[in-house]
Specification:
Elements: E1 13-19, H1 30-47, E2 50-56, E3 60-66, H2 72-91, E4 103-106, H3 110-126, H4 141-145, H5 155-161, H6 164-172, H7 180-184, H8 190-200, H9 206-210, H10 214-225, H11 231-238, H12 242-253
Antiparallel strand pairs: 1-3, 1-4, 2-3
Helix pairs in contact: 1-2, 5-6, 10-12
Length: 254
Amino acid sequence: MPRKPREKSRFGIYHVILRGVNKQIIFEENEDYLQFIRILKKYKEVCEFKLYAYCLMDNHVHLLMEQTTTDLGTIMKRIEVKFVKWYNRKYKRIGYLFQDRYKSEPINDEGYFRTVFRYIHQNPLHAGLETAVGTYRWSSYYDYAISQSSFVDIDKAINLFQSNEKCIEYLQYISDEKCMEYNSLSRLSDTEALKIIHKKTSCESASDFQHLDRTLRNQYLQKLHYSGISIRQLSRLTGISRTAINNAIRERTI
């Protein structure tokens, strides 16, 4: 079956996601994150694209970018090939690292630009990797916080909010808006979900979950839900009621 053509942005602006094949970890060490950023910087100069936001998670990457002289497909191919060659050499492996093609969605208005901009910067919060927006190291938040970019094009977003202070205020307001990544997640099997539960929590069974104190339990539930486990599946595998899980997730978005 032929691939569906990518939807084009009227302004050349896209939200792009690169995901590890089979959801595998693609950043094992700090050096891996730094190398990806070096490659991103290099091809930003070579391909002359604009970068408005980025976030490097352990098994996927978010980019908010605008193509100018080079089309998006060429840009992403160069970035992927360069990083995979480096990664395979470092870890003495062969084969694919990224899952299928990169995913992209067009940004066609300022409202959705704002939504994606915040979604990318709050990804670590919703994944349980930080407890306050902006404390996660591997994103472009710091460029906006100090209003000085090393290579991120911060002016467009700041101008949208009229000042850097209002831009940061917007990023700090916790939102549960969902973008492409969330909508495109496939349903996990119970086996896959259990592997995630065992990896991200100290629990080996539903009984372990039910003996946790409420604060830690809710932190785990938030983290697991944003890892792609549905509320219904979480309830079934942990023994926690759907109402309690819903309440735990809402705590993060208030």
